[in-house]
Design a protein that fits this description.
Elements (H helix, E strand, L loop, with lengths): L10 H10 L4 E5 L3 E2 L39 H4 L2 H9 L2 E4 L6 E6 L2 H10 L4 E4 L4 E6 L5 E5 L2 E4 L5 E2 L9 E2 L2 H4 L30 H16 L5 H16 L7 H13 L4 H14 L3
Parallel strand pairs: 6-10
Antiparallel strand pairs: 1-2, 1-3, 3-9, 4-6, 4-8, 5-6, 7-8
Length: 284
């Protein structure tokens, strides 16, 4: 990122300079709140929630809906729809994930002390109450990953407070691990639920029916081109809903499903968590 002069009221000029560096920008109202330009979104009445799947996905006149309105297109930044926003803007924000960055937002002295003891040194930007530590690389955003610490990267915005000091460091695993939830205490390796009451034979316990179901599940996971986490969970849920209550699933079947998910980049922990969550969803 180019070493830019800190913002001193010239928000539009600063935004254009950032955009030229490939940093997606948007204006902020007082209170670090995004603008909303359509009647439904005025005053952020919509809560900034609709149409936030991807940058530019908002169907309202821009800028709307927080990070999804961030852009590097000077024609959009200078468009008439943005004129009021830039005139009234209290600050410029940017979408860190869109710029290939992650911001570790340290909100107080204790959080800064923790970061200095546990995180690799990197570019630092002073904030009103603490510091932003910038790393090169994008990841999932999350608030309150520990006391006084937020992660702002994909699907999030951060206030632009200047270029900061120090070289950028590659995003380390210790930062990525901050958004990973603690594993569940017990993770079943396979389904061990009893067969239906009455002692009747299992209607699914034919090799053809069960093997076809497992093969279809493997194929569904293998063909996932996006949202792999969601696809894996939905597939596990479908398999358990069909075969889980009759006791026909074995550890070998579970291993096949886990292997298919691992082949798409899922970790063993993610597989186990998805399986456990599916069991919980079904009350099993």
């Amino acid at each position: 990122m180019t070493q830019l002069t800190p913002i001193r009221g010239e928000h539009l000029s600063a935004a254009l300079s950032l955009a030229a560096d490939g940093v997606p920008v948007l204006p902020l109202r007082a209170g670090k709140v995004p603008f909303g330009n359509c009647p439904r979104c005025t005053g952020n009445a919509c809560g900034g929630r609709p149409n936030m799947k991807a940058p530019g996905s908002c169907t309202c006149p821009l800028p709307c809906h927080g990070w999804a309105a961030a852009t590097t297109d000077p024609a959009v930044i200078n468009a008439p729809e943005w004129t009021r926003a830039w005139c009234e803007a209290a600050a410029v924000a940017y979408h860190p994930g869109g710029a290939g960055l992650t911001v570790v937002d340290l909100d107080n002295v204790d959080a800064i002390t923790w970061a200095r003891a546990n995180l690799p040194a990197t570019r630092t930007v002073r904030t009103t109450r603490g510091e932003h530590w910038l790393y090169e690389g994008a990841m999932t955003s999350a608030n309150k990953v520990r006391p006084g610490v937020d992660i702002k990267s994909s699907m999030a915005y951060a206030r632009w407070l200047g270029p900061g000091t120090g070289p950028l460091t590659a995003l380390p695993d210790v930062v990525r691990a901050l958004v990973v939830k603690a594993p569940a205490p017990v993770r079943p390796a396979a389904v061990t639920v009893p067969a239906p009451g009455g002692g009747g034979s299992c209607p699914h316990r034919t090799p053809t029916y069960l093997n076809r179901g497992i093969a279809m599940a493997e194929q569904r996971i293998a063909e996932a081109s996006s949202a792999v986490h969601n696809t894996v969970f939905a597939t596990f849920l479908a398999v358990l809903a069909t075969h889980g209550r009759c006791g026909c699933l074995t550890e070998a079947h579970t291993a096949r499903l886990f292997a298919a998910a691992r082949a798409k980049g899922e970790s063993a922990r993610h597989c186990a968590d998805a399986w456990a969550n599916a069991l919980t969803r079904l009350g099993m």
